[in-house]
Structure formats: C-alpha cells, structure tokens
Amino acid sequence: MWLLTALLLWVPAGAQISADPSKAVITLQPPWVSVFQEENVNLWCEGPHLPGDISTQWFLNGTAIHTLTPRHRIAAASVNDNGEYRCQTGLSVPSDPVQLEVHRDWLLLQVSSRVVTEGEPLTLRCHGWKNKTIYNVLFYQNGKVFKFSTGNSEFTILKTNLSHNGIYRCSAMGKQRFESAGVNITVKELFPAPVLKASLSSPILEGHLVNLSCETKLLLQRPGLQLYFSFYMGSKTLLSRNTASEYQILTATREDSGLYWCEATTEDGSVVKHSPELELQVLGLQTQPPVWFHVLFYLAVGILFLVDTIFCVIICKELERKKKYNLEVSLDSGQKKRVNSCLQEERYLEEP
C-alpha cells in the first residue's frame, strides 16, 4: 500500500505543480501534511541549482532556518514544528508554501494534500496514535459515510473532481471507537464545462457554412498542459481528440439537423467534461418556379375573371328580363280586374 501511495503521490505536497520551471517545489516523505507528535517528517526541496552548489534555503513561517541542504528533517515533531514551510535553491524563486500540522490525539485523518486540482489523486489515511492497531474504519465526507473498511485504514481517490470538496474525518475501533478531527479538502477547478456555440443561429438554410466552437478555458496553467476536444451529433462522433476547439460543417444540409455536443478532456483523460446539447435545424432551400409557370398562372387567372364577368352579365340580363315579364303580367292582371268590375256595375244598374 505504501508503494502504491508513493507512486500516486509523486506530486509535490499542496498540489505544487508550477507553470514556472524556476520555482522550487517541496515534497513530503511520508506524504502527509499532518502528523502526530514525536513522528518523523522529511521535506525535500527540488529546484535548479548553480553548478556544483546544492545549497538550499529553508523558511518556517517566513523566517530562515538553519538547514542548508535539499532535505530538511524533522525528528520527533513537536508543536514548534507547526507552520508554513518554503524553500529556495540557488537558481529558483521561493516555492509555494506547505502547511505542516502536528497533532496530539488518539486518531488522526492524514491527507496527501489539503488543496488539489481536479483530476489529481487524493489519499486519506486514518492513523492511530503511536501506530496503534485500528479496525472497522469509517471515512466521512461532510458528515456522511462514503467508505468502510474492516482493516485497511488507507483510501485513495484516483481522480478528484469538484464533488470531492468538503470536510473529511474518520472513525475507527481500538479499545473503543475513536473519531478524528475534521480536515477541509479543497478541489480547484482545472477548467469549466465547455459550451458549444454555432456561428449561425438556428434555423439555418441549406448550403451555408457553420462553425461549431467548444468554448472553455484553462483556469490553471501548467507546463505541457493541453486540452483535447471532440464533437458529436447525438451518438455519432464527428471529430475525436483534436487540439482545435472548432468543427466546421462546410455545406449544411437537412441531414445535418440534430442535437450537437462537445467534450473537453486533458491528455491523460483524468478530467473529462461535456457541454450541454445544442440543437441545429437546417431548412431546405425554397426553389423559385420558372417564368412559364407565372405566365400560365396569370393567364388562367385572366380567363377565370373573363368567364366570371360573362356569367355575371348573362345572369344580370336574365334577371332583368324576368323582372320585366313579371311587371307586365302584373299590369295585365290589374286591368282585367277593373274591366270585370265595370261590367258588374253596369249589370246592377240595368236590373229593375
């Protein structure tokens, strides 16, 4: 287990991976940033030196200490060894600080670093005073149990992410159940989740060039750190692991309609993040009808108008004729009624 821990934690304590190659770096052996009183600790300083000169300056809480070698050894640590350590070599600038804590308790949760960058490993060790045997170990994050082991007191998170932020503690059985003090772990974000953007807003007409860009930014700079980008439409891979953050649809067609998303990842795949989906809708071009179609259309409309006009004239004349006929019939009927009335009156006068 110690060999595995050493391999995983061959990273400077306190997540000291500097973008500046001239900055010194401190490494702890054993790799814990908190120890019990009377335990031994070795701090190593790595940085560029002058030829033939390996002298190293060490600082505790800003004050220079007597050690002038790359290794600063703390034998039988005491509360006086608590504090912030820095180092500097002949050609380096001062290292980032490493905070060492010396405790006196029954149980101690040791961590490889209190601050890590997502994707880095984090090892936790539930450690008994004077290496007393402990068992039935429980690890807690923010008050909730996330790991139980009957005998193994060490646990490694191989790839940390932002969900691993929080306060950690452990409890274990010895003569009775003991519980450690809490340790605050901070996971720094390497880069935010990408956002996929298109050069044209949807809907898009067929034939247009569309640029898709997977937008994110490294929040921490490190030597040789490079992001790789992949583009997808649904479950179909369009472009895989490319250093370019853009993808082009040279000539959009209706078949290019769909849900697009992208992925950003580090070279070793320790941090992988996806963008939300972006919907693209491509519309077909509306072709213009030929000239002859317009000619026939307007000719047909003209003919229909002429036919309608002729029918209207015929109907109007027919209505007028019927109206005149009805009037004549009405007049003839009235005259006959008057003649019959006169005849009846004469007959009445002639009667004795």
Automatic annotation (TrEMBL):
GO terms for biological process: antibody-dependent cellular cytotoxicity; innate immune response; phagocytosis, engulfment; positive regulation of phagocytosis; positive regulation of tumor necrosis factor production. Residues 1-15 form the signal peptide. It is found in: Cell membrane. One of its GO terms (cellular component) is external side of plasma membrane. GO terms for molecular function: high-affinity IgG receptor activity; IgG binding. It comes from the Eukaryota. InterPro entries: Ig-like_dom, Ig-like_dom_sf, Ig-like_fold, Ig_Fc_receptor, Ig_sub, Ig_sub2, Immunoglobulin_dom. Residues 21-88, 97-186, 192-279 form the Ig-like domain. Its main location: membrane. Keywords: Cell membrane, Disulfide bond, Glycoprotein, IgG-binding protein, Immunity, Immunoglobulin domain, Innate immunity, Membrane, Phosphoprotein, Receptor, Repeat, Signal, Transmembrane, Transmembrane helix. PROSITE patterns: IG_LIKE (PS50835). Belongs to the immunoglobulin superfamily. FCGR1 family. PANTHER family: HIGH AFFINITY IMMUNOGLOBULIN GAMMA FC RECEPTOR I-RELATED, IMMUNOGLOBULIN FC RECEPTOR. This is High affinity immunoglobulin gamma Fc receptor I. It comes from Mustela putorius furo. The lineage of its organism: Eukaryota, Metazoa, Chordata, Craniata, Vertebrata. The gene is FCGR1A.
